[in-house]
Amino acid sequence: MNPMNQEQDLRSERALEELLGKAEPRPLPPQQDEQVIRRAVHAEWDQVMKRRIRNRRLTNFALAASVLVVVLLTLNALRGPFDGGGLQQVANIQKQFGVIKVLSNRQSGPDDNDVSAIGSGQSIETGDESGLTLAWNAGGSLRLDQNTRVEFESGSQIYLRSGRIYFDSMPSGIPSVLTDPDKARLAIRTDAGTVRHFGTQFIAQTDGNNLSVLVREGRVSVKGTHVNETAMVGQKLTVTRDGRITVRIIEVSGGDWQWIEKTSPSLTLDNRPIIEFLTWVSRETGQPLRMSQRVKEIVSKETMHGVYDEEPSHALRLYMPITGLAWRIEGGEIVVGD
Question: Which H or E element spans position 160?
Fold first, then answer.
């Protein structure tokens, strides 16, 4: 019991004794009745003291509970709307096919096909002939190729254990919370070094020993114990775990980039200009657009509508005839018009 509460109880008892001492003497009850009265008084006194103690405990418990509620509400406010067992959401799943395993604490979920968001602390494994597209919360589109293992460490960093990923900081036709590619930051940690990009489309792939970075747009840096290099547009930078570095010139479409089209999210156009469809195809395939000013005015005015969920190069062949515009692939470019 608190010493202050004990002192208050003693003062109350002394005051009661003084008050009783001033009262006129009363006839004493029979001895048998006196014993009964004493027992009743003691019983009532015990009940009063127990109620006081119980009330104090309830008050302390209520205070503790209110503090706990405040703490829980604060944590929930920090965590946001994502309900992932205490995980901080870092991305939303936009497209998936094949075998996808989402793991938390090295345990696979009961039904990974029902997962719609990814949180920090989780890992993803893709199987054969599988792929995954994520809308990164900080902005941009993150794609995972088949046989890839990625661990999500925070809202700005992932660990690529093995496999191949693609990141586009400004994906065409894909809603993003950011419009500034310089703010859509994503660090990719690997055993050979950490990859950081600057307004970019790039591929990072590793087998646990060798790291390769292919740049389609912008520039990418790789820093580690044995490396501090930057790759530019049209370059492939390869780094081994022991620090050997090679750089070679590559194409920015086809070949190593072909798998990305399988992971392209659907494009929805509701009476939107044809140029938005062409820009989507161009960015997803890595093939620049070329057209005259007259044709550019036409595709900026004329509209399309529908949901396009085919691979972009296939969608180009399938839907461009509907527009009535001539087009062709020439010198790695999409040429629209005569």
Answer: strand 157-168
CA–centroid distance for 169 within its chain:
16
Question: Do 89-257 and 266-336 show the same overall fold?
Answer: no
Under CATH, what is the fold of the domain 266-336? Answer: Phage tail protein beta-alpha-beta fold (3.55.50)
User: 3-class secondary structure for 214-242?
Assistant: EEEEEEEEEECCCCEEEECCCEEEEEECC
Predicted TM-score (pTM) of this structure:
0.72
Query: Greatest CA separation found in the chain?
Result: 126
Tell whether the model's pLDDT for residue 69 goes beyond 60: no
Q: What one-character-per-residue DSSP string does 90-134 give? A: EEEEEEEES-EEEEETTEE-S-GGG--EEETTEEEEE-TT-EEEE
Give the whole-angstrom CA distance, residue 310 versus residue 265.
9
Rounded to whole angstroms, the Cα distance separating 201 from 216 reads 5
| CA distance from start to end of the chain | 94
Q: Exposed/middle/buried for 312, CB within 10 Å: 0-12, 13-18, 19+?
A: buried
Q: Do the Cβ atoms of 131 and 98 come closer than 8 Å?
A: yes
Name the token pair of 149. 């293992």
Each residue of 27-55: pLDDT tens digit?
454 554 445 445 544 444 455 455 555 55
Phi, psi of 165 (to 5 degrees): -130, 160
Output b/e per residue, 121-149; b: 16+ Cβ within 10 A: bbbbbbeeebbbbbbbbbbbbbbbbbebb
Tokens of 237: 């930078």
Note the CATH architecture for domain 89-257. Sandwich (2.60)
Q: What angle do CA 45, 49, 55 make, to 5 degrees?
A: 145
Sequence ranges of the domains in the chain: 33-79, 89-257, 266-336
Residue with tokens 């209520």: 62
Closest listed residue to residue 257, CA positions, set 236, 279, 227, 276: 236
